[in-house]
TrEMBL record:
PANTHER family associated with the record: HTH-TYPE TRANSCRIPTIONAL REPRESSOR YETL (PTHR33164:SF43), TRANSCRIPTIONAL REGULATOR, MARR FAMILY (PTHR33164)
Residue span, HTH marR-type domain: 24-160
SUPFAM superfamilies in the cross-refs: Winged helix' DNA-binding domain
Protein species of origin: Massilia polaris
Matching SMART domains: HTH_MARR (SM00347)
A Pfam family: MarR
Domain of life: Bacteria
Any one biological process term the GO annotation gives: response to stress
Protein name, per record: MarR family transcriptional regulator
Amino acid sequence: MRDKEEQDDDGHPDLASRLTDDHHQSLKLWLRMLSCTVRIENEIRSRLRASFNITLPRFDLMAQLERHPDGLRMGELSRRMMVTGGNVTGITDQLEREQLVVRVPHRTDRRGYSVKLTDEGRRAFAEMAVVHEGWIASMLKDMPTAEKTQMIGLLAEMKRRLDGLGRDAT
């Protein structure tokens, strides 16, 4: 029987665990990363909803804006969040109704707008961010610091190698 960490929520071996040595290592790696990401995201989604009545995409948009006090254009938010412009518009509309963000005329392009956190949005995000960081730390507390550091380095190298993917396709 396989370890619990290699089982899905129903107690069955997860797909990455069922792959044999004959399967491509890259596929196994991708499936393992995806499995970990989905588990963490699902837990964070649930906790954000229960504790703050907010969705993960709304939290993510606020996180982007917190890093850019002058605001970001909708297209830039879409690119940074890796979602469609329509998604960003819908999320922004919700946050604007709650007075957590505001659309302001762009500083240099009179045709466009930037989205910024309001004072209330900055306060709310600061509170959520502290709790969010604690949740992540708690979920990963059993992984030794040296292993976390090694994984950060390996994933940074993977990202560097993947950055050129779209440019090479013909």
